[in-house]
Every structure is written in structure tokens, then in C-alpha cells.
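Section 3.1: Structural characterization of target chains.
Under the original work plan, the team committed to producing a structural model for every single-chain target entering the pipeline before any wet-lab resources were allocated. The record below documents one such target. The sequence was received from the expression subgroup and is listed exactly as submitted; it comprises 317 residues.
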Amino acid sequence: MDQINQSSVTEFLLLGLSESPEQQPLLFGIFLALYLVTILGNLLIILAIGSDPHLHTPMYFFLANLSLADASFSSTTVPKMLVNIQTHSQTISYGGCLAQMHLFMTFGALDDFLLGVMAYDRYVAICRPLHYSTLMSPLVCMLLLAACWVLTNLAALLHTLLMARLSFCADNTIHHFFCDVVPLLQLSCSDTSINQVALFIVCSMILTGPLSLIILSYTRIISSILRVPSASGRQKAFSTCGSHLTVVFLFYGTAVGVYLCPPSSHSGGEDRLAAVFYTVVTPMLNPFIYSLRNKDMKVALSRLLGIHTLSSQGLLS
């Protein structure tokens, strides 16, 4: 047994959300619909921002990248689950499992970093408006985006390499609907202490770093808004931040509890329910949150879809 390594496991079994055959058609229909809405919604956001010159600003630049990350985030898990349900197969190859875990962590962390950068953008726009064009120049925006991509890929690569060194001997059944770090650690017959320490440290940095930036930015933003003399001015300032804050609460509400708790404290059912929320529901809701609460996005979407009559009559305002 000591000589058995990860090469002895060529595939894993993903149990999914339910083991009941009667529930599989219902799950397939629900998640197919959610996935299609997610892809369509985020694609519309990207196309609307790209086609409207009025939205070629740092805020919407990062929003378009957030939509791309959301669509990619869901695409790492949901299509494989749908294929498994449709083909009545629960298997995923060893390499495919590690690749799915890597992409999942990359796009999940990218979401997190982009939310932090967007909070900083709102802070500069509201608290330092005279320096906005300099502090958020196109070059600075590109550098911030590149830093987000590099840091998230490095973090995901670290966990992938640490996972690849582990041995999986007998049990290859993952009690989840995708290859996440925690369920895989629970299957390993190797010493996972290094992985657990790395998972806690890296996830703490990934989650609490951007979250600290968000809290600090909004503390300064709220303090600055409260000093605005007119009620209409305060309302306008708050309206530019409301959508972003809503998305922040949705994202962190489920992710923090899953990845900052020790693996031994996790319940499979609770983890799967939380994972459904932040991998499927939140990426689907984000386009609606930004489009329904943002007048500029409504106008851009109406132009993209050719709904000129509605926008001209003020029905979308």
C-alpha cells in the first residue's frame, strides 16, 4: 500500500447533488436553465459595455471582466454535471479533476479580486474625483487586471501542485458535484497537513485581502458621502455603489464559511448547497443586479437589443 500513489487512481466518481435517479431529470432541467441564463446574462453585459462608448470607463471595464469571470466560473462545473446526468455517468478523469479544480479556484479567486478592485475604483471616483483620470488611467486598469490574473493563477497552481503529490488509494468517490479542494483532501490516504495549512493561508489571503480593501474603501466612501450637503447628491453617490455592495454580500456570504473552516468541520450536504449558491446562483444574479440598478446599463442593453422605443419613452428608466 505504501507504494500505491496517485497513478493508481485514474478517475473519480462525482456523486452530484442527489443520488436518487428520479431527481436527475429535474436537476438537469433546473441547472441547464440556470446555466443558460448565466451565460446569456453575462454575455449581454459584456456586449453592451463593449458596444457603448459611454461605458468605456474603468468601472464598466472591470464589470465586463467580472461578467467574463462569472461565466467562466459556472462553466468549470455546471457543464460537466449536466453531461454526467445526461449520460448516467459519474466519472471524471484524474487529470480532468485536477484541471477542473484549478480553473474553479482561478475564476473564483478572480471574482474576489475584481470585487476588491471595483471597490477601490468607486473609492477613487467618489473620494478623489480630481485625480480619477490619473489614478485609474487605462494603463493602471490593465496593470490591475493583469495582477488579478497572475495572483489568482499562482494561487490555483500552488494548490494543484500540492494536490498532485498526494496519494489516492482506494475510495475515489467525491461527495460533491465537482472537484473541489476540500472533498479531494478528504479522499487522500496521504498526509494532507501541508495542503490544509496552505489552503487556509492562501484562502485567508485571497478572501480577506480583497474584503479588507472593500471594507476600507466603503468606510471612506460612506464618510465622504455623508458630508455631501444635498440629499440628491448623497442618493446619486450611494446608487453607484449599491449594485457592487449587493454582489459583495452574495459572494462572501457563502464563500467565507466554506474555505476558512477546517476540512474536518465540513458537512457534505451543507457544502454542496453553499457551492450551488456561489457557483451557479450568484454568477446568474450578478448581471440582473447590475442592469436593473444601473440606468446606464439599461440604456446600453436596450440599444444592444434594439429596444429603442422603450428607452425613448422612458419605460426603462
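Residues 254 and 274 are 6 Å apart (CA to CA).
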